[in-house]
Each structure stands twice: as structure tokens, then as C-alpha cells.
């Protein structure tokens, strides 16, 4: 599987894909937790992996990222999750600040161009 940095889609499809991925990630997390808690052997393994699992969970935590960056023709929007907490809003604002400072929309215009191909 290749790494993906950017996905281009319409709003409806993008939202459906995000919701599907969120649900899948939540289900996998619950199954992993249930498996770890299912036996003494698994609990011991979980204790050994606790730090690594915490780091993995942090990478999967939407509040670390704040929201999805939507690039428009004239500006940038960061769409936060409906159940965002203070940390998630902070992260979303940080993303918007970075996007503004780096002139992402202008860079996209210059890179992609204004052609009708």
C-alpha cells in the first residue's frame, strides 16, 4: 500500500470516507483492548507493550490533528470534528495558522496552475 499525502474528493464522499475510517479505527481499538483484557497472558503482554500502545493511540487520536484541511480556490478551511474537545480545537487553529503562514493556496495555484486541461 502506498503512502497518501493528499486526497481530492467532493465534500459528501470525503465526509463518508472519514466517518467510515473513524468507525473502523474505533472498532479495531475496542477489539484490541478486549483481546488484551481477555486473559492473564494477554494482560502481561499488554503491560509490556503499554508505552508503545499509548504512542500508537496518540497517533490515531484526532485531537492531535484538530481537523481536516480543506483547500479552496481562495482560502483554507480546517474542519474540526463535531465532538472536538479543547485540545482538538487548539490543534485545528494551529493547522490553520500554519496553512496561512505557508500560503498553501497560493502555492497550490502556482504549482498546479490555472490551466483548463
UniProtKB/TrEMBL annotation:
It is found in: Cytoplasm. One of its GO terms (molecular function) is phosphate:acyl-[acyl carrier protein] acyltransferase activity. It catalyses: a fatty acyl-[ACP] + phosphate = an acyl phosphate + holo-[ACP]. Its main location: cytoplasm. InterPro entries: FA_synthesis, Phospholipid_synth_PlsX-like. Its EC number is 2.3.1.274. GO terms for biological process: fatty acid biosynthetic process; phospholipid biosynthetic process. GO terms for cellular component: cytoplasm. Keywords: Acyltransferase, Cytoplasm, Lipid biosynthesis, Lipid metabolism, Phospholipid biosynthesis, Phospholipid metabolism, Transferase. It comes from the Bacteria. It is an enzyme of class 2 (transferase). PANTHER family: FATTY ACID/PHOSPHOLIPID SYNTHESIS PROTEIN PLSX, PHOSPHATE ACYLTRANSFERASE. Homodimer. Probably interacts with PlsY. This is phosphate acyltransferase. The gene is plsX_1.
